[in-house]
């Protein structure tokens, strides 16, 4: 009971005071539920935990979780014990001296420009669902939105005159991202013909709707983009984040500056955006090896 109460208060703290995204809060909740299960087996409550207990817990995760998941789990513990210190439940965090596991840098998958064109050409714009799908894919590639940001867009977030979309990113941070002519054209067609057909006389503030006139879900869009990837004959598995990665990589390849791409992606730290410079360098190496007369 005590653990449940502490967890609820901590999660409220993450949402309200720290402004973390819902997906992050849920991930931390799962991490701490796992930790509490470990404590229960040892007959411990959170205020009784020592650094040795935290080390034993982290050791128990080895082999069962990826390095990335283990690092997030330790981050959850550090935040949780810091919260207990700030609320006077403990004097010092038992996790304060522990270093975060080193996460190997993983280059994001990227579609070629030809593959993007092929993917975007798949929806059939003669039906309401085809108009919606075309608008969603065009907007995703035009703006680099996260899929959660895309499906939560409301009609009022789109400014067709100025050519901008307003979205709330991680930590409820608002940003404005420009759209290109292709995305604007697809959106206008969907808003004038496709969306009213899906609403069937009902009303909804959300931009993208399913057949029942309800908001599209992340899972629904995931299935949609995967289906179009198969239809396009693209061998690599298509995931929504692939278009976000491709958006950033193609902008940098065409000469965009890193700071502008950071702002459009909604990255808090430019070091997160810098991974795309590695992708473009890898692409340059491929081109050099393929076309240089003496590779």
CATH superfamily descriptor of the largest domain: Intergrase catalytic core
Mean residue pLDDT: 85
CATH topology of the largest domain: hpI Integrase, Chain A
Portion of residues in helices? 55-70%
Backbone structural class:
mainly alpha
Count of DSSP helices? 13
| Tertiary shape | globular
Side-by-side strand order of the widest sheet: 1-2-3
Computed Rg: 23 Å
- At CATH level 2, the architecture of the largest domain is Orthogonal Bundle
Low-pLDDT stretches: none
Tell me what you see in this structure.
The chain has helices at 2-17, 22-42, 51-61, 67-86, 113-120, 128-143, 147-151, 181-199, 218-232, 240-253, 258-265, 270-273, 275-291; strands at residues 158-159, 164-168, 174-178. By secondary structure, it is mainly alpha-helical. The chain has 2 domains: 2-86, DNA polymerase, domain 1; 113-291, hpI Integrase, Chain A, CATH 1.10.443.10. Strands 1-2-3 form a 3-stranded antiparallel beta sheet. The protein starts with a helix and ends with a helix.
């Amino acid at each position: 009971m005590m653990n449940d109460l502490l967890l609820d208060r901590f999660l409220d703290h993450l949402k309200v005071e720290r402004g973390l995204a819902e997906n992050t809060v849920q991930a931390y909740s799962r991490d701490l539920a796992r930790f509490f299960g470990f404590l229960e087996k040892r007959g411990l409550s959170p205020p009784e935990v020592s650094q040795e207990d935290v080390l034993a817990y982290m050791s128990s995760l080895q082999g069962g979780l990826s390095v990335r998941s283990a690092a997030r789990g330790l981050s959850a513990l550090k935040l949780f014990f810091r919260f207990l210190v700030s609320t006077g439940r403990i004097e010092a965090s038992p996790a304060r001296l522990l270093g975060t596991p080193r996460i190997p840098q993983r280059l994001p998958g990227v579609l070629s420009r030809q593959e993007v064109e092929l993917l975007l050409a798949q929806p059939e714009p003669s039906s309401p669902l085809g108009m919606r799908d075309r608008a969603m894919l065009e907007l995703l590639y035009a703006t680099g939105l996260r899929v959660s940001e895309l499906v939560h867009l409301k009609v009022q977030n789109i400014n067709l005159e100025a050519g901008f979309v307003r979205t709330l990113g991680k930590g409820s941070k608002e940003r404005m991202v420009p759209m290109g002519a292709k995305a604007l054209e697809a959106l206008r067609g969907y808003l004038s013909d496709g969306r009213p057909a899906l609403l069937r006389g009902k009303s909804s503030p959300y931009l993208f709707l399913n057949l029942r006139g309800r908001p599209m879900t992340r899972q629904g869009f995931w299935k949609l983009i995967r289906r179009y990837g198969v239809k396009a004959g693209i061998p690599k598995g298509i995931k929504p984040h692939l278009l976000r990665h491709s958006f950033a990589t193609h902008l940098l390849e065409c000469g965009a500056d890193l700071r502008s791409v950071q702002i459009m992606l909604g990255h808090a730290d430019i070091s997160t955006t810098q991974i795309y410079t590695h992708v473009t360098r890898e692409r340059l190496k491929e081109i050099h090896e393929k076309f240089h007369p003496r590779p």
